[in-house]
Structure formats: structure tokens, C-alpha cells
């Protein structure tokens, strides 16, 4: 049954037979959604096609949505009502279902990846595809790849990445699990020597994985060579029971992501063959000689982490844009508060405070989408160079991917929660899609390197750059601006009018000034703490870490914005976009720059780069830009191109029919399966029913 969107005639007569009072203040949300699209000044479909690399890719997504909707394992109707066990089994069924479709229908890998993100049901196969296979690809010899990859691709084995232990996650060199080479048997003995060395967290290890990439400290002839990667079987393929010497299980419920069976693992002197060590870079010969990785790739064993951090950057824009889509569409159809009773209530999106939150968030989502593409391009060009034995870009790639992983996940996680809060009470419903989105995203700030720790890796690179500047060495790459800043230490902001703040040149100059100042400040603090000796470790490093993290964040914020400008200008100059969408993207770029600079308002003034008046102009310009973008708000969400099936949100649906969707969703609650409810017999009837009470 559908409820009337507006009070019907009978209701109006009931409350006021003379019809003097009108209840029709609430407009129809479906009409509001349609009206929003008429306001747009650009073709949202053209921008959507550009963002998805062509109309044919968008059409393919539509076909894949239909395919998914026809399969029981990808049905989302009851997704928000699942128990942990149902979520675990369902997540696996969805991943296996996609895999079977790919094989049976001969769909491409690209189709599979698209289906995964459309169905979005994280489960026990995430780490198999996300880290187990990439580690074998990145660190295995051709023979090892030939041995393991076909089994992985046919799902005849399922793997995960077992690095973190109960006692250590960040400090990889401190891992306690050991792999000791036994020259007599030409095997490694892998062992967990303490409670703290129990592996803890690997996704899919609890109940799904048959194999792990084990990160363990390699010992050869009594010498400790630090963490290396080994392929270790943990479960019998016929019975799925743990092998001898293996103790393994699920770690229990988490804040989110509960379809994934993160696990614990303890090993008791388990023997594995010598070729279980991944030996593309470091090797142990039969007779027990250790051959180290090439000098410019000392951290070869950490390579998968660089790859996964790049993918996390790629996905951040995707997650934030989903949240922004839901919140913006809902704010456009939600009406609240009329100046006078009976008059039309305002669309929530027309409240200034809501606009000033949602539209800057929209600009951040677009910036991250573009950053994600550039990050993957950077990673792929490193991968090609690596195949030729060239690791020269690795330090820059590691510094950027670490810092971008931290900044992009900080922005996305905070942004998803901010978007949820703009939806009022209905944002608290799982049916809105936002709580699950947040709970299944926020761990990105922690996994694959806690964000503070990741900023500190970027800071390590920055401090070396700062020292190079001091000694007059020329800089290249992302830190090049530090040399320019050193040549003009007293540069001042040249903004004279609010609209000056839109210019990329003013924005970049200001962001570079902040990053250079904070880098110089961190370098000075570090030098003071180290008694004048520059160093990137130890107590001096620790006591400087607040300044170091601020510097790294500012450096990455500059990089993110510069990338946004360059991508939009390139698309426009290469005529990949017509004037309408290009103009709107430029407004988003301008807003992103202004919003990023407002985050740094204190830093802009602290060292005298900008005056209080210039910062006031900046604030004013944000308002102007937000108002200019307001008519395009909903069209900009359409350009992200999310089908309703993917968002699975009562509030984010394209047609705006939010109230009906909320009610329909409530009706599928298991609590509503019977009219009296599950507590009637055991609890309520003995209290409330007079006959039952008399029997007490
Ligand atoms: C069909 C569909 C079905 C489903 C489909 C599924 C699809 C995919 C899904 C994807 C899911 C992915 C989920 C990911 C889950 C996360 C899993 C984890 O958390 S796993 C666990 C993740 N855990 C973590 O992330 C742990 C975080 N901790 C660490 O990474 C390290 O301990 C550390 C970096 C903090 C320090 O390391 P330490 O050894 O103490 O090093 P120092 O600081 O002393 O620096 C020495 C030198 O090394 C340099 N360098 C450093 N790293 C790298 C690198 N990677 N590279 C290159 N260089 C590097 C550094 O710059 C320095 O150079 P220099 O200045 O001397 O020239
Ligand atoms: C959902 C989820 C899934 C995961 N999946 C996997 C997986 O599949 N495989 C796997 O191996 N691991 C996995 N992990 C583990 C994850 O990689 C670690 O939790 C992460 O690297 C952080 O390490 P930690 O837990 O030891 O945090 P800690 O290092 O204990 O961090 C605690 C605090 O100390 C601070 N800190 C620590 N060291 C430093 C330092 N040197 N300088 C400054 N501050 C510091 C941190 O910033 C943080 O605030 C997963 C984690 C989660 C939450």
C-alpha cells in the first residue's frame, strides 16, 4: 500500500470542513527531485560518461545491474536485517556468485570488478583478491606464480595476508612470528613463539582461507633477516579443518565489515617447503645462503602494502561520493520548517548551513575521484618500471601513496559521517545506507597503516627534502615547491578581491606557502630536538611528530588540489568535455581550493602569509561559490552515476520517493513478521493479557 504524498481532500475536510487551513505545505518529494534536475546548467549525463570513460561503460553497468538483480545472492532487499552468520555466508555467496558469472558467462575482469562494487557485499574473499593474489604476483618468481595463480583463479585455494599480530601491527620489523630455515630438510619451520605473536586481523582467515601469505622474520644460520613473505597452507582442502600445528578462528564481531571473517592464527613448528618463500627479490638458496633484494628495493617485502594503499586512495572518492549523493538528493526533497503555517516549507538543501556543508563535501568527493585515477596511473607506471628492474620512483611513490592514503581516508570517513548528520533522524536508519557505509569504510583510516603513521612516512621524505633544500640541492617531484619557497621566504598573498581566491595560481601559491612553512617549522623542531643533528628516527623524531604530521598533511593537501586542477584543465583542453560540464567542474575546483584553504586559515595567518582580511575574503568566496553551484547540486550527484541498486538507500534514490521507500523497508523488518511481535509469548503476554496474568 502506498500512502498519499500530500493530505487528500477527505483529510483536509476532516481537520477543517471549510477548507480554510491548508495542510498542503509539504510538496511531493518526487516532484521536488524532478524540479531539481530542471535547474541544472549542464548535461549531467555527459559528465557521467566522462567520469566513467564513455557511455558504453555506463550502459554496461546498467546491464550488470540487471544481471545482479536477477540473482538471489545479490538481492539487497534484506541486507540491513542480516545476522552476523547470514552476513558472512551471504558475502561469500555474492563473491563466489560474481566469480561464477565471470567464468560461466565469460565476463571480463573489468565486469567482475564493476559487479563487485555494484553488489558491495564485503566477505571472506576480499583479501584473496585484494592482497593474496597481488603479493604472489608482485613478489613471487615466475615459477611460483605458475604454481599458485591458476589455483587462486579457479578458487581451488583461498588466501589471505597474515601480517599483523596481537602485539604488533604498525611496527612490521617488530613482528615475532619466525620462519627458520632448516638446511637438513631444506624446509622452513614457521612458528608463533608467544601470545603476542598470534596473527590477528587477516580478513577471511577466520573461517574461509585455506592459505595465507605469512609475514615472518626470516632466520638463516641463526641470523635474523627481518620480515619476509611465505605461502603457508593452514586448512585441509578436503575437510577445511586446520592442519596439524595450526590454531585458527574468527576474532569476533567488529564495528562494521562483519561479513568478513577476520581471523587469528597461531603456528606450532609448522614445516613448509623452501619454495614457499616468495623469492622474486630476496632468496634463500638450498644450502642456506641469503641473497638480499637489490639495494634500491630493500623494502621489497612491503611492496603489496604500496599497491593496496594506492587502491585505497582510488576507492576513497567512490565511497565519499556515494554518501554525498545520498545526503544531497535527500536534502533536495526533504522539506522542513515553514515561515508561516500552511506556506511551503523550505527544501533542506536551501538552508545556507546545509549547503555550506554539502557542496564543499561534493567538491572533495570530485577531487578524490580524480586523485584516485592519477594514483593508479602512478602505480601502474611504477609497476612497468619495476618489471625492468627500475625502482627509482619508489621513494616518491611510497611517500605519496602513504600520505594520500591517510588524507583521502580522513576526508572520506569524516565526510561520510558529516553527510549522514545532514540527513537528520532518517540518516540514523540503516535503510538510509549511510551508517553501513560509514561502519564499513572507517577502518580504512587504520588498516594498511594507521593514518598518523602513514603521514609520518611522508614526513620522513619531506624532512629529507628540507635538508636537501638547506644544502642547496635541487629538488624534483612533489616536493619541488620547497626549493621555490626557499628562494622567496617572505612571499605574501596577492589576493585583493574575493574572486581572486578562485584563481588556481592564488590557491596553489597559498597552499604551497602553508606546506613550505609547516615543513620548515617541522624541520626546525626536529633539528632542535635532535640537538642540531638532522635525523628521521628516535626520540627527536617522536617529540616532533605533531609538527611532522601537520607538515605532511599540508604537503599532501597541496598535491591533491594540484592534481584536481591539472585533471580538469587537461580534460577541458583536450576537449573531452564541452563547455557546460567543464565550467561546473572548474567551479568545483575553485570551491575545493577555497575549502582546503579555509581548513588552513590559521596557518595562512600564523606566519603572516595572508592577513585576516584576506581570510575573510576567502570565507566570503566560499559562500559565493556554494550558491553558484546550488542549482547543479542534484545533477552533480547524477554524474557520479550510481544506480539505486548500488546505493541501496531509501534516502538516496534517484526518483526522490524517500518516504515510501522508508516505509517499505520497515515492513521487511523481521520484527514485523507477526503482528504481535516475538516478545509477546515469552515476555509481554504474561504481563499484559489479563487471563495469562491470572495464571501467574
Ligand atoms: C569477485 C569480487 C570479490 C572481492 C574483490 C576484492 C577486491 C579488493 C579488495 C581490497 C581489499 C583490501 C583490503 C585491505 C585490508 C588491509 C589489510 C592490512 O591492513 S594488511 C597490514 C598492513 N600493515 C601495515 O600497513 C603496517 C604499517 N607499517 C609499515 O608499513 C611499516 O612498519 C612502516 C612503514 C611504518 C615502518 O617500516 P620500517 O621497516 O620500520 O621502515 P622505516 O620507517 O625505518 O623506513 C626505512 C625505509 O623504508 C622505506 N619504506 C617503508 N615502507 C616502504 C614501502 N612500503 N615501500 C618502499 N619503501 C618503504 C622508508 O621510506 C625508508 O626509506 P629511507 O628514508 O630510509 O630511504
Ligand atoms: C578491519 C581491519 C582489517 C584488517 N585486515 C588485516 C589483514 O587482512 N591483514 C593484516 O595483516 N592486518 C590487518 N589489519 C591490521 C591493520 O593493518 C593494523 O591494525 C594497522 O596497521 C594498525 O596497526 P595496530 O593495530 O598495531 O595499531 P597501533 O600501532 O597499535 O596503533 C595504536 C596508536 O599508536 C599510534 N602509533 C603506533 N606506532 C606509532 C609510531 N611509530 N609513531 C606514531 N604513532 C604511532 C597510532 O597512530 C595509533 O594511534 C586489519 C585491521 C582492521 C581494523
UniProtKB/TrEMBL annotation:
Listed Pfam families: ACOX, ACOX_C_alpha1, Acyl-CoA_ox_N
UniProt domain Acyl-coenzyme A oxidase N-terminal: residue ranges: 43-158
Principal subcellular localization: other
Assigned keywords, A-Z: ATP-binding, FAD, Fatty acid metabolism, Flavoprotein, Lipid metabolism, Nucleotide-binding, Oxidoreductase, Peroxisome
Molecular function GO terms recorded: acyl-CoA oxidase activity; ATP binding; FAD binding; fatty acid binding
Binding-site residues for FAD, renumbered to this chain: 164, 203
Occurrences of domain Acyl-CoA oxidase C-alpha1 (ranges): 302-463
Active site per database record: 448 (proton acceptor)
Domain of life, source organism: Eukaryota
Identification of the protein by name: Acyl-coenzyme A oxidase
Organism name: Micractinium conductrix
Amino acid at each position: 500500500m502506498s500512502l498519499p504524498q500530500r493530505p487528500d481532500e477527505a483529510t483536509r475536510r476532516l481537520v477543517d470542513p471549510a477548507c480554510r487551513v491548508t495542510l498542503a505545505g509539504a510538496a511531493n518529494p518526487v516532484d521536488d527531485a524532478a524540479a531539481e534536475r530542471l535547474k541544472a546548467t549542464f548535461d549531467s549525463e555527459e559528465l557521467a560518461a566522462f567520469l566513467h570513460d564513455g557511455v558504453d561503460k555506463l550502459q554496461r553497468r546498467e546491464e550488470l545491474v540487471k544481471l545482479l538483480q536477477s540473482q538471489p545472492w545479490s538481492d539487497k532487499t534484506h541486507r540491513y536485517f542480516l545476522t552476523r552468520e547470514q552476513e558472512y555466508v551471504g558475502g561469500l555467496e555474492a563473491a563466489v556468485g560474481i566469480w561464477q558469472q565471470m567464468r560461466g558467462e565469460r565476463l571480463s575482469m573489468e565486469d567482475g570488478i564493476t559487479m563487485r562494487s555494484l553488489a558491495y557485499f564485503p566477505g571472506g574473499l576480499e583479501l584473496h583478491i585484494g592482497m593474496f593474489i597481488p603479493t604472489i604476483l608482485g613478489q613471487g618468481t615466475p615459477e611460483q606464480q605458475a604454481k599458485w595463480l591458476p589455483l587462486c583463479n579457479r578458487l581451488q585455494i583461498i588466501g589471505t595476508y597474515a601480517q599483523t599480530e596481537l602485539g604488533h601491527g604498525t611496527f612490521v620489523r617488530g613482528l615475532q612470528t619466525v620462519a627458520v630455515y632448516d638446511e637438513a630438510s631444506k624446509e622452513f619451520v614457521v612458528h608463533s613463539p608467544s601470545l603476542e605473536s598470534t596473527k590477528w586481523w587477516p580478513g577471511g582467515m577466520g573461517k574461509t582461507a585455506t592459505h595465507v601469505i605469512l609475514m615472518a622474520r626470516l632466520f638463516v644460520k641463526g641470523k635474523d633477516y627481518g620480515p619476509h613473505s611465505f605461502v603457508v597452507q593452514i586448512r585441509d582442502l578436503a575437510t577445511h579443518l586446520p592442519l596439524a600445528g595450526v590454531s585458527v578462528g574468527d576474532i569476533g564481531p567488529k564495528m562494521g565489515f562483519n561479513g568478513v571473517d577476520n581471523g587469528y592464527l597461531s603456528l606450532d613448528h609448522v614445516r613448509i617447503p623452501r619454495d614457499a618463500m616468495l623469492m622474486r627479490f630476496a632468496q634463500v638458496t638450498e644450502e642456506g645462503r641469503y641473497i638480499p633484494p637489490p639495494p634500491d628495493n630493500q623494502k621489497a617485502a612491503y611492496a603489496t602494502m604500496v599497491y593496496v594503499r594506492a587502491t585505497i586512495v582510488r576507492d576513497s572518492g567512490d565511497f565519499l561520493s556515494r554518501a554525498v549523493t545520498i545526503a544531497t538528493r535527500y536534502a533536495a526533497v526533504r522539506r522542513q520548517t515553514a515561515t508561516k503555517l500552511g506556506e511551503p516549507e523550505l527544501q533542506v538543501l536551501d538552508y545556507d548551513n546545509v549547503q555550506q556543508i554539502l557542496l564543499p563535501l561534493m567538491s572533495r568527493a570530485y577531487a578524490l575521484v580524480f586523485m584516485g585515477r592519477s594514483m593508479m596511473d602512478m602505480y601502474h607506471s611504477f609497476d612497468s618500471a619495476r618489471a625492468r628492474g627500475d625502482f627509482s620512483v619508489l621513494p616518491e611513490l611510497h611517500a605519496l601513496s602513504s600520505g594520500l592514503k591517510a588524507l583521502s581516508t580522513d576526508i572520506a570517513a569524516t565526510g561520510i559521517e558529516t553527510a549522514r548528520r545532514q540527513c537528520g533522524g532518517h540518516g540514523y536508519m540503516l535503510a538510509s545506507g549511510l551508517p553501513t557505509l560509514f561502519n564499513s569504510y572507517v577502518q580504512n583510516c587504520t588498516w594498511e597503516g594507521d593514518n598518523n603513521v602513514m603521514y609520518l612516512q611522508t614526513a620522513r621524505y619531506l624532512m629529507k627534502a628540507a635538508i636537501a633544500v638547506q644544502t642547496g640541492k635541487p629538488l624534483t617531484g612533489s616536493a619541488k615547491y620547497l626549493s621555490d619557497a626557499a628562494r622567496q621566504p617572505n612571499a605574501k598573498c596577492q589576493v585583493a578581491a574575493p574572486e581572486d581566491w578562485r584563481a588556481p595560481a592564488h590557491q596553489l601559491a597559498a597552499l604551497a606557502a602553508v606546506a613550505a612553512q609547516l615543513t620548515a617549522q617541522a624541520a626546525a623542531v626536529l633539528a632542535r630536538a635532535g640537538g642540531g643533528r638532522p635525523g628521521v628516527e628516535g626520540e627527536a623524531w617522536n617529540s616532533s611528530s605533531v609538527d611532522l604530521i601537520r607538515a605532511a598533511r599540508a604537503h599532501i593537501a597541496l598535491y591533491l588540489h594540484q592534481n584536481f586542477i591539472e585533471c580538469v584543465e587537461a580534460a577541458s583542453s583536450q576537449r573531452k568535455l564541452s563547455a557546460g560540464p567543464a565550467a561546473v567542474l572548474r567551479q568545483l575546483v575553485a570551491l575545493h581550493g577555497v575549502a582546503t584553504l579555509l581548513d588552513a586559515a590559521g596557518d595562512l595567518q600564523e606566519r603572516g602569509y595572508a592577513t585576516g582580511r584576506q581570510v575573510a575574503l576567502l570565507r566570503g568566496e566560499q559562500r559565493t561559490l556554494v550558491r553558484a553551484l546550488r542549482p547543479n547540486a542534484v545533477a552533480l550527484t547524477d554524474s557520479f552515476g550510481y544506480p539505486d541498486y548500488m546505493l541501496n538507500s531509501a534516502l538516496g534514490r534517484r526518483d526522490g520517493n524517500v518516504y515510501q521507500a522508508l516505509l517499505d523497508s520497515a515492513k521487511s523488518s523481521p520484527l514485523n513478521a507477526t503482528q504481535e511481535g516475538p516478545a509477546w509469548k515469552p515476555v509481554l503476554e504474561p504481563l499484559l493479557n489479563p487471563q495469562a496474568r491470572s495464571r501467574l
